[in-house]
Amino acid sequence: MLSVTPLLLHTNSTLFFFFFPPSLPTRPSPTIHFSTPRCSSALQDELSPSPPPLPALKAAKRVVLVRHGQSTWNAEGRIQGSSNFSVLTEKGEAQAHTSRQMLIADTFDVCFASPLARSKRTAEIIWDTRGEEMIFDFDLREIDLYSFQGLLKHEGKQKFGAAYQKWQVDAPNFCIDDHYPVRELWERARSCWTSILLHESRSVLVVAHNAVNQALLATAIGLGTEYFRTLLQSNCGVSVLDFNPRDDGSPYICLNRLNQTPSSPVEAGSSGGRKASKRIVLVCQGSTQLNAEPMDMLGVIKAQKIAELLLDLRVNSIVSSPKEACIETAVAISRVQEAADCLGADSVPRCVEMKQMENLDVEKILQKSNENGTVIPPLQPGWPNGCADRVVEALWDHSEMAWQSLLEEVADEAAPEKVVVAVGHPALHISLLGHCLNLTKEWLGSFHLDAGSISIIDFPDGPSGRGVIRCINYTAHLGRWSVPITTSTLYDK
Known about the structure:
single chain; alpha/beta; Rossmann fold; 17 strands
């Protein structure tokens, strides 16, 4: 087994080691009753003041989370919650088959799934002819929304007024029928992790729902209820978590990717139920070499594929690190954007603003010298005491300036809709995601990015509001997953 403790940044094949201590069915299915404890406000405030730790691991484990395909109530705009009257639409079935193809070459030891019809059917399509065990766990049902369930969204607003508004703007503190649904969901997600992690398996598929998958992702990496609606889960979107045991057995957890969707991630859509007119797209330059000057051939191919992926996105400006590999990637994106406009009805090319930003250059930080002035390769695990701390501190401080520069770039009051593409090194973009989520440098090891990947941040409340992460480490444009989902150096013996 490859030891990766303590691992901070994962980027491509290089590991950076740092040392840290349609309509309703004609005859709807019977309602499934779930017993959930009723909680008064005072009691809810006492729930999980300090969440219990996840169970210890004996071996590395990879968990792949999939949300169900589009359902009839999704299409109608009806509030589903944990009701069981909704089934997959024709589009939802097609999405599930696409996810099956995305995962067809990957091996799984077990499938955990919600027993609700829309999720159960999605799981059966993806699992197909696999002979391994399927476990339908009631705790994986969607969030319990009590009196809201079955209502169209406008009906919820009319009937519940202030409570519905609370659900929209402050979901963690939303209360209905003497329940706090989001708080209860977080408690249930932690319980699910106990079942999943204690199962004797190395690779696990979990098929469930939007809110519960959000809660599973958040509770795994230690985020609270305030992150509800921050980690987007599209229909049949796939997310991947790696769990690796430390010396004491406690799991070291990394979000390998978020919301790899059957369709393009750049397609117009809502973020957490709201339209976003401002967006930052983080593009990791395609070269596998830390300081590839110029880019190698693989990097050139990846840059072109990135440009093609962004073809349907009207990019306003591209900022890049001054490193040659990043500039080459930015130029490839710009050329495709400008050429695309020539194919339109007016055939007038659009000039995409391009600029280099010193704040996006972190290569020198990643090769920082030790006390004697000797350059230490970033993948060297045996760094002198204190050296890694300084490198991380420098990277984090530097990335904060880069994040503020990007927010200023996307803010532009003269442009009601603005898309900014930032091209840089994966280590920088991991840090930028941390700043977006208002985390600290100690969280950097919770994320992984591959060369040539893209990550998208939407701002439904503008750049001054919290960013919604549409996807992290999207790589389907590079050929299926670029790196197979269930094979990893984590499992090397």
